[in-house]
């Protein structure tokens, strides 16, 4: 009767040389970079289509009209800006971190009002502490503060969110410029701007 001897446990990490491990790590990082680039390009391209600009413009006009019907006071620049950002976040359909941050900002503002008494005072960071950080890290922190909801993201996720956010803002500027030009011609008396006029400033 044959007895099967237990095979010794293999330790692949011990047999692999550091050079091979480095190559594998490099390949993994390259795959990650290429994946983030593809994802970022797909997101940015959607904001460059005339269809997306048309949808955003229509939603923005409806939201501003709805606001004017609900309130008797005329809309201020801040009201128009907040409405434009909320409509932009809705157009992103919550697929990005910055859009979700904009959508929940009003709820967060209401919650902060109730928690003012419990707020702890934070000691501001001194200039010496700020200088200790590397230049690239300081710039990334500044970029994270500019993009809504992206203060604590990794490098590639932050770049992906920032590129999508910038592309969305560019589309927003084009759409609002087209609406402003349409209204400046005296055609804003209740008529819906045609789609070709709203998409006239699209740059591919």
From TrEMBL:
Compartments, record wording: Nucleus
BHLH domain location: 120-169
GO process annotations (BP): regulation of DNA-templated transcription
GO molecular function (one): protein dimerization activity
Entries under Pfam families matching the protein: IBH1_N
Membrane among keywords: no
Organism for this UniProt entry: Hibiscus trionum (Flower of an hour)
PROSITE patterns, alphabetized: BHLH
One of the record's GO cellular component terms: nucleus
Record-given protein name: ATBS1 Interacting Factor 4
Sequence segments annotated as region (Disordered): 15-39
Domain of life according to the entry: Eukaryota
Keywords: Nucleus, Transcription, Transcription regulation
Main location: nucleus
